[in-house]
Write a structure and sequence with these properties.
single chain, 291 residues, alpha/beta, 10-stranded mixed sheet, two-stranded antiparallel ribbon, 11 helices, 12 strands, 23% strand, disordered N terminus
């Protein structure tokens, strides 16, 4: 991917006038290819729609969606013009230097989304346009077209050092945006970062919500700062996840929901460990977390 820098003023005024707009935290994000990504069949629903089981079929949702299964999505699922608003950076943060891919504005963004990859990943995964059914391309376009910023950092470890780096990135995003909403999304082992951030009072105060995609369960989450402040969380998980059992995450959701906690859960029926990254409906999730 290109690391070429671009002039924010030129892109905002000439190439990407949509970057000048900003979505209110109370409004849903403007659509992007919703007919391809949001038209999912709900098999079962409970808790007034907060918990849904969604139909997932490998033949349709991988083989039918990709020109090369799991390697390249069909062209109609993506819009690559957003690459002009993308830049690789090394941010000098309070925790030290952090390599990130950034899509959207440097400052003054209407909101920020930060995606944390799992084991073996880096910032390239979160901005890959053609894998995972084009879902990262959709996330990038949703952020840019609605006046937001999307960060995909490279996390070197999923321990306290990784948590410290992400906390510093959350602070950077909050300050550079003038205190506008920040959403933290964590996939697979990256969920350890989300659970660590949940115990950081300053980071939690700067967050609008979290999304956990196919992640591990934190049985002690109820004792965290995030839980006490009822930071909204949306879980997505595959029912046949062989890495982190869906039943454990559903149990956490149930405990939270019964206590009146603001949480939602999307379970992909027959989905595997990577299914949430491919199938999670970013527009619906972000519109709810950015309220």
């Amino acid at each position: 991917m290109s690391t070429a820098h671009f002039r924010t003023a030129v892109i905002s005024c000439v190439l990407f006038p949509f970057l000048l707009s900003s979505v209110s935290a109370a409004e849903p994000l403007k659509p992007f290819k919703d007919d391809l990504f949001s038209s999912q069949t709900v098999l079962e629903s409970r808790d007034a729609g907060d918990f849904t089981i969604v139909d997932y079929q490998e033949l349709r949702d991988i083989n039918g969606r990709d020109s090369i299964p799991e390697r390249r999505v069909r062209d109609r699922y993506v819009s690559l013009a957003v690459r002009r608003a993308q830049e690789n950076q090394t941010l000098e943060l309070a925790s030290g230097p952090l390599d990130v891919a950034r899509v959207g504005k440097d400052t003054g963004q209407g909101f920020t989304v930060i995606f944390i990859h799992g084991r073996g990943g880096d910032r390239r995964l979160g901005v890959n346009d053609i894998t995972f059914g084009g879902n990262f391309n959709r996330l990038k376009n949703l952020a840019a077209a609605n006046g937001g910023t999307y960060y995909a950092p490279s996390i070197r470890s999923f321990d306290k050092n990784g948590v410290s780096a992400v906390a510093a990135l959350i602070d950077h995003a909050s300050v550079s945006s003038g205190g506008r909403p920040v959403v933290l999304a964590c996939a697979s082992m990256g969920s350890f970062i989300c659970w660590g951030i949940a115990r950081d009072a300053k980071a939690v105060s700067q967050l609008s919500g979290m999304a956990i995609l196919g992640g591990a369960t934190d049985p002690e989450f109820g004792k965290s700062v995030a839980a006490k402040r009822k930071l909204p969380i949306w879980f997505t998980h595959g029912s046949r996840d062989s890495v982190y059992a869906a039943a454990d995450q559903v149990a956490l959701y149930d405990r939270l929901h019964k206590s009146g906690y603001p949480t939602r859960f999307t379970l992909f029926e027959t989905g595997a460990h990577g299914t949430p990254v491919r199938m999670s409906d970013w527009r619906t999730i972000l519109s709810w977390l950015l309220r």
